[in-house]
Amino acid sequence: MLAVTALLACTSLTPAEAASTAQASSARVVAGSGTWGAVATTNTTAPYGTGALVLTFPNTGTNGQPLYPPQFFTVGNTGTITLTAATYTATGTPSTATFTIEACSAGWNESANTCSGVISTVLTTATSPQASTVVPPGAGQGIRLRASVAGTIPRSTTPSLTVGISVTRAQARAATTTGS
């Protein structure tokens, strides 16, 4: 009876209560023998770490002709099961800038800032938060994404972008039965 009461208490959040528990990275959640979660990080391989990722875009041009090179980062699957989707958030400064996060179907050539496959937009700061099926292919794996900035950026300002990711149970692969 206690387990049923605890289960009901855990699953009866109002939308407002659920929104107030949002995190910048999803915590690993245990369900039977599987866990799910993801994090945005500059690490290219596991362990990926925790918390929100803050990217800065230093001006490599001049104040008269600013140039803000893109930043590459990893979304790592921190759980033990495959993800089918995730919800991305992006908050940038200054507010006059638009930040875009993109994926490349063939993987990025980061040194040349090119993609030999198809580029897809995961989200922009204007569409944040955004659910996406662009996720790491399996447990413990990562996918590289590119963040870029455009728009009106005041002189002597270094734009920054905070990237968060969350994963719900519905965004992890369906449960499977093993054994009897």
Oligomer kind? single chain
Give start-end ranges of low-pLDDT stretches: 1-23
Look at the helices and sheets and give the structural class. mainly beta
**Strand element count:** 13
Query: How large is the radius of gyration?
Result: 18 Å
N-to-C series of helices and strands: HHEEEEEEEEEEEEE
Strand order of the largest sheet: 3-5-12-7-10
End-to-end separation in angstroms reads 25 Å
Biggest sheet layout: 5 strands, antiparallel
- Count up the helices: 2
Any overview of this molecule?
It is a single chain. This protein has 180 residues and is mainly beta. It is built from 2 helices and 13 strands. The protein has helices spanning 2-11, 15-20; strands at residues 29-31, 34-36, 38-41, 53-56, 71-77, 86-93, 97-104, 108-109, 114-115, 119-124, 130-132, 142-151, 160-166. The strands form 4 sheets. The protein has a 5-stranded antiparallel sheet with strand order 3-5-12-7-10, with no helix packed on it. A 4-stranded antiparallel sheet has the order 4-13-6-11, with no helix packed on it. Strands 1-2 form a two-stranded antiparallel ribbon. A hairpin with a 2-residue loop joins strand 1 (29-31) and strand 2 (34-36). Residues 1-23 have low confidence and may be disordered.
